[in-house]
């Protein structure tokens, strides 16, 4: 995700400057190109040599290079970068950035920056809490910068409190989150309304409300990050464009918002109506400022259009619409009435009874209600709430697509015919819903995703099963599961399926909460569950293609190998190279290792030339299978501990016994000899070959 990204890292004079070294290292490791710019004071805390060594580029600090006279152009840096991070950012630098005091290279670079800027403050707790600092942070936020809030803990002053620079890992995560572009909403158009409306009373006064637009803008950003084209109709708010892929239409009154929404909605797949629309406007707008008369005054109001209701009547097949309900009492009851009346697919209830929820603040506490279910979420940042809401939206869009366009949907994921079963009997407690939802989500993830660009006919899909057993689960969504993965391929011309792959994975740890969308980005593995699934899917597809053409599955087996390599840093069980002869890394490493090439060739000989032929020509088919025996032996000699020879001597042994039940004594002798060398404990099964005479 950060691969190839050009990042300017601004380092200022704070004790936390030492963390900049780790930050550079992590960014470089992610594949980013890092240019460090230091303030003069930062050099008192960490040497430029350290940072230039880690970034592989000379550190910039002064406007001119004294030796060469070269000018370090902050303007060019501003154009070069894909992002700027200021970490650590001292109170002084925050103040300069907020006020435009450009007296060093770092602040001039910031002011020339065309790319998004991330700021990670670091200072003593009192300095951090000081109104001046908080004001500067608010100003910087208003300018569209991304503030990575300071963490709490022990500070350099030995006091305990908020002011520590966020850990480099989390800063990198924030950056990766920003650059993450999911794909599940790609090709979709989403309409969002946000902010308040102002209803004019006279040229200087209006009726309005406290909505800041933060909630709606966060939803727009999240939809854009997941690939949607977003039209954001914004009431009067002072927020910057949340994402470059968002088209913004600024309006002031409810009628303007309604006109814009009616014009946009027909070409949209979904709408999220988050604006706090004024229900009434003054019946008469005075052309001039209403004068103070000393008398009382009665305002006559007339109803504004209800935008959600209007769009709800227009809503067509295949469109999804979500609204909000801002309540002060009887929240759920009122929200459900609005859900029905406005013909919404779901409604997001937030109540002013909850502290930290609703207007203006950076947090919200919501309950998502649809016709069947409701999900209560805890207090979260509005950005996290937006993720939950958009996950819900995209789930409904997918479900609708399946309903409305069955033929298109089935063209999506067409490689696998997988069944997913999640057995939670060991841990079944109060919340059983989460297990059903996870099972559904896994089914959808595996079967609806297009894993290759190949075309598979319905009867060519690879039949496989993913059987999870939940070994432990806690309410924060932490799971530890075992998984039995099994895949077969059809033997052409018969109704028989031959085993391709079978493996029991003993521990997969991951987090899942209801409505979480399962996401997988090959080069950015941050979800262990989907990484594991993708690994097995690619392994299965690769092995299937190996069985169709000699070494035919390389492209997908390499993808599995790539996942196993990338997962080395996840720290999750089952991936670590060298820790076991029987984990995901060693499975694929063995299989793709040159030493196991005979094994890969065997897949083709055994299945395509052997089993597929056997239906028409039993002897010819078995001859090809017998020719595999030296290949199994060779693979076993080269890598005795490798998993794949076991597949033949354990899981496929019944099949082999069956195949050799009718053949010459020489063939029987050969197969018994080879297999008993590989696995001496097979004697009972191999005896059946020798004794079976039919
Ligand atoms: O902007 P923030 O400061 O971040 O605050 C966020 C928020 C509190 C404004 C947001 O979370 C929220 O609750 N928005 C909806 C506010 C509201 O008007 O709620 P309501 O219950 O009155 O309206 C119900 C639904 O009908 C809403 O989807 C609203 O957009 C829509 N509506 C209402 C009236 C109207 N005339 N037209 C509408 O479309």
Task: Please write out the topology.
Blueprint (H helix, E strand, L loop, with lengths): L5 E6 L7 H11 L3 E6 L9 H8 L18 H7 L2 E7 L1 H9 L5 H8 L4 E5 L3 H5 L1 H12 L3 E2 L3 E4 L5 E5 L3 H12 L9 E6 L4 E4 L2 E3 L6 H12 L3 E6 L11 E5 L3 H11 L5 E4 L6 E3 L18 E3 L3 H8 L5 E8 L3 H11 L4 E6 L11 E2 L1 E5 L3 E3 L3 E2 H23 L1 H7 L3 E8 L9 H16 L13 E13 L3 E13 L6 E15 L16 H21 L5 H13 L17 H9 L4 H18 L3 H9 L2 H10 L4 H9 L1 H7 L5 H14 L4 H9 L3
Parallel strand pairs: 1-2, 1-3, 3-4, 4-5, 8-11, 8-13, 11-12, 13-16, 16-17, 22-23
Antiparallel strand pairs: 6-7, 9-10, 14-15, 17-19, 18-21, 19-20, 23-24, 24-25
The protein binds ligand PMT.
Indicate the radius of gyration in whole angstroms: 31 Å
Overall residue-averaged pLDDT value: 89
* Ends apart, CA distance between termini: 60 Å
Weakly predicted, low-confidence segments: 405-411
| The CATH homology group name of the largest domain | CoaB-like
Structural class call reads alpha/beta
Bound molecules: ligand PMT
Strand order of the largest sheet: 12-11-8-13-16-17-19-20
What is the CATH level 1 assignment of the largest domain? Alpha Beta
How many separate domains? Answer: 4
CATH level-3 fold name of the largest domain? Rossmann fold
């Amino acid at each position: 995700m950060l691969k190839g990204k050009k990042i300017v890292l601004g380092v200022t004079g704070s004790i936390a400057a030492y963390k900049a070294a780790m930050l550079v290292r992590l960014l470089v490791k992610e594949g980013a190109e890092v240019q460090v710019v230091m303030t003069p004071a930062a050099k008192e805390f960490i040497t430029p040599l350290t940072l230039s060594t880690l970034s592989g580029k000379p550190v910039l600090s002064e406007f001119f290079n004294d030796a060469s006279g070269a000018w370090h152009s902050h303007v060019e840096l501003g154009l070069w970068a894909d992002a700027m991070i200021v970490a650590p950012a001292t109170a002084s630098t925050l103040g300069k950035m907020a006020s435009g005091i450009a007296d060093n290279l770092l602040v001039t670079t910031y002011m020339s920056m065309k790319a998004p800027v991330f700021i990670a403050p670091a200072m003593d707790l009192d300095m951090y809490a000081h109104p001046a600092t908080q004001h500067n942070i608010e100003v910087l936020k208003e300018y569209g910068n991304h503030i990575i809030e300071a963490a709490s803990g022990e500070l350099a002053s030995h006091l305990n409190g908020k002011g520590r620079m966020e850990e480099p890992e989390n800063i990198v995560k924030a950056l990766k989150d920003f650059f993450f572009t999911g794909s599940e909403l790609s090709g979709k158009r989403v309409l969002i309304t946000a902010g308040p409306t102002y209803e004019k009373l006279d040229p200087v006064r209006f009726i309005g409300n406290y909505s800041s637009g933060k909630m709606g803008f966060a939803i727009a950003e999240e939809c854009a990050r997941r690939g949607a084209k977003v039209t954001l109709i914004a009431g009067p708010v002072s927020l910057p464009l949340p994402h470059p892929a968002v088209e913004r239409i600024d309006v002031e009154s409810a009628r303007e918002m309604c006109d814009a929404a009616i014009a946009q909605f027909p070409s949209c797949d979904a709408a999220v109506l988050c604006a706090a629309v004024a229900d009434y406007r003054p019946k008469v707008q005075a052309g001039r400022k209403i004068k103070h008369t000393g008398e009382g005054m009665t305002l006559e109001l007339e109803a504004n259009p209800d935008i959600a209701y209007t769009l709800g009547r227009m809503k067509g097949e295949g469109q999804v619409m979500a609204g909000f309900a801002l309540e002060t009492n009887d929240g759920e009851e009122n929200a459900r009435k609005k859900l029905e009346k406005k013909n919404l697919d779901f409604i997001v209830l937030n109540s002013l009874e909850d502290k930290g929820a609703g207007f203006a603040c950076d947090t919200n506490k919501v309950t998502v209600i649809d016709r069947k279910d409701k999900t209560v979420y805890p207090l979260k940042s509005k950005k996290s709430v937006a993720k939950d809401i958009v996950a819900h939206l995209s789930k409904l869009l997918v479900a609708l697509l399946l309903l409305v366009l069955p033929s298109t949907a089935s063209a999506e994921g067409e490689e696998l015919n997988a069944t997913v079963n999640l057995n939670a009997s060991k841990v079944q407690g109060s919340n059983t819903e989460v297990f059903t939802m996870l099972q559904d989500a896994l089914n959808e993830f595996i079967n609806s995703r297009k894993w290759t660009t190949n075309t598979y006919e319905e009867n060519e899909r690879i039949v496989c099963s993913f059987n999870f057993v939940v070994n432990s689960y806690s309410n924060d969504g932490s799971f530890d599961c075992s998984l039995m993965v099994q895949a077969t391929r059809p033997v052409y011309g018969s109704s028989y399926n031959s085993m391709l792959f079978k493996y029991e994975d003993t521990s997969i740890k991951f987090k899942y909460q209801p409505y979480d969308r399962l996401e997988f980005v090959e080069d950015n593995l941050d979800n262990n569950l989907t990484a594991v699934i993708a690994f097995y899917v690619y392994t299965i597809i690769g092995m299937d293609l190996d069985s169709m053409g000699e070494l035919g599955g390389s492209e997908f087996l390499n993808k599995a190998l790539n996942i196993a390599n990338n997962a080395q840093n996840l720290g999750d069980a089952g991936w670590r190279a060298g820790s076991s002869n029987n984990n995901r890394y060693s499975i694929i490493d063995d299989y793709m290792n040159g030493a196991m090439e005979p094994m890969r060739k065997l897949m083709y000989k055994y299945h395509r030339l052997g089993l597929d032929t056997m239906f028409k020509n039993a002897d010819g088919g078995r001859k090809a299978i017998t020719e595999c025996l030296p290949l199994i032996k060779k693979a076993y000699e080269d890598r005795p501990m490798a998993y794949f020879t076991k597949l033949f001597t354990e899981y496929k042994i019944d099949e082999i016994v069956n195949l050799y039940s009718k053949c010459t004594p020489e063939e029987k002798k050969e197969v018994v000899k080879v297999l008993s060398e590989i696995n001496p404990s097979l004697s009972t099964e191999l005896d059946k070959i020798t004794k079976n005479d039919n």
